[in-house]
Write a structure and sequence with these properties.
Blueprint: H1 4-18, E1 23-29, H2 31-34, E2 44-49, E3 59-63, E4 66-72, H3 75-82, H4 89-93, E5 96-100, H5 103-119, H6 125-137, H7 140-148, H8 155-176, H9 189-193, H10 202-211, H11 215-239, H12 246-249, H13 253-269, H14 273-296, H15 311-316, H16 331-350, H17 361-376
Parallel strand pairs: 2-4
Antiparallel strand pairs: 1-2, 1-5, 3-4
Helix pairs in contact: 3-5, 6-8, 6-11, 7-8, 8-11, 10-11, 13-14, 13-16
């Protein structure tokens, strides 16, 4: 039986001789790192290059009919994994180091593990919920394809798209539970079913998606799993709503948004309906989203079929721009935008938001000097 660690020793000797300054980290992960290797298991290597030459050390090969992949991960991708932006967080968290070029490289790698631990602390829960929302959003293209498919599509198509739905939803659930998968799909079911937060019928959905040969049942299970996960996600986000805080969350917002509102006024004056159309809808959506963020401390979920987040915009009494988009007469839209500029300015000031507005350059110069004085003091 092949001793895979003899393979690793051969590679390490090769690196030390030919890439002493070019590779920062060599490690392994997977079944050997977790003590679950079988006689056909390879050693799952990876390395972090320190220079562009280091990437040349990448190699894929077979020994005794066992495959090996010595593949590079950039520091940037390793940081993405540690920040839960890449689903392979376990590679950084649970790997075993075989080689470290220097103390500095070792410290840098250990900081990645500190990052992983930090993201699992309560103060970063909302961040992972937002990452979960992004992951769940990627599911809908596969649901769309399943819904648009006709009966002529074979089971391979359905299972392929359902596989994408299932893996992405499960990754979203891992993030909702503020964790990562320690094993690959097919070996992580026990971890999945132990999640504290999960749809009530998760195991049933998984079974239908993986075992059914009835296309309609596969689609229904995918849709229901996605819907239940979305409800769970929204419920968890609402639990992490914070008290309203306008001054810090909307700092600089009005100054930037004023440019878009001015663009709409100019478009109205020039009878430029297309610019008015795109800018007016974008402006109302942006303002509504920022007001929601100022009130709750988190952004509205863009996966829902309602626009409840716009309730704050309406409650404040800000004018509806979208309803006044009329190609043959933009005068009403122009008047509404001018009103919005004034009302939004006043509202933010009453909420304690500091708006940097100056009547002339001299006032701006005084502001800059005072700002620098505060900085150095």
């Amino acid at each position: 039986m092949l001793d895979v660690f003899n393979v690793s020793e051969t590679l390490l000797n090769h690196i030390k001789m030919n890439y002493p300054d070019d590779i920062a980290i060599v490690a392994y992960y997977g079944s050997y790192a977790q003590g679950t290797a079988s006689k056909r298991s390879d050693l799952d290597f990876f390395f972090i290059p320190a220079t562009s030459k280091g990437y040349d050390a990448s190699i894929q090969f077979l020994i005794h009919d066992i495959s090996f992949d010595f593949w590079p991960i950039s520091w940037e991708r390793a940081e993405s994994m540690a920040s839960f932006n890449d689903s392979k967080t376990t590679i950084i968290a649970d790997c075993k180091l075989l080689y470290v070029r220097s103390n500095e490289d070792g410290e840098r790698f250990m900081k990645l593990r500190d990052t992983i631990s930090s993201f699992q602390e309560p103060q970063h829960r909302l961040t992972l919920l937002e990452k979960s929302e992004t992951e769940l959003g990627s599911v809908y293209i596969h649901l769309y394809k399943l819904n648009k498919a006709d009966d002529s599509e074979n089971i391979t198509f359905y299972r392929t798209e359902a596989h994408a739905v299932l893996t992405k939803v499960l990754q979203s659930l891992a993030l909702i539970n503020q964790t990562y998968f320690t094993k690959g799909f097919g070996k992580n079911k026990q971890q999945i079913l132990k999640f504290p937060l999960k749809p009530a019928h998760l195991e049933s959905y998984m079974h239908t998606i993986m075992h059914s040969e009835v296309k309609k049942d596969i689609l229904q299970a995918c849709e229901q799993l996605t819907e239940d996960t979305l409800e769970l996600l929204i419920d968890q986000k609402e639990k992490y709503s914070r008290n309203p805080s306008y001054p810090d969350r909307l700092k600089g917002f009005y100054e930037e948004e004023k440019g878009t509102l001015d663009k709409i006024i100019t478009a109205c004056e020039q009878h430029d309906y297309e610019t008015a159309f795109f800018s007016a809808i974008h402006a109302q959506e942006t303002i509504a989203s920022f007001l929601y963020f100022a009130e709750t401390g988190h952004w509205p979920c863009n996966l829902t079929l309602n626009a409840d987040y716009q309730d704050i915009y309406k409650r404040v009494g800000l004018p509806e721009l979208v309803t006044h988009l009329t190609a043959h007469d933009l005068s009403l839209l122009q008047a509404e935008v001018q009103s919005l500029v004034s009302l939004l300015d006043s509202y933010l000031l009453t909420k304690g938001v500091e708006i940097n507005q100056f009547q002339n350059i001299e006032q701006f110069e005084v502001f800059l000097k005072e700002k620098e004085g505060m900085f150095f003091n």
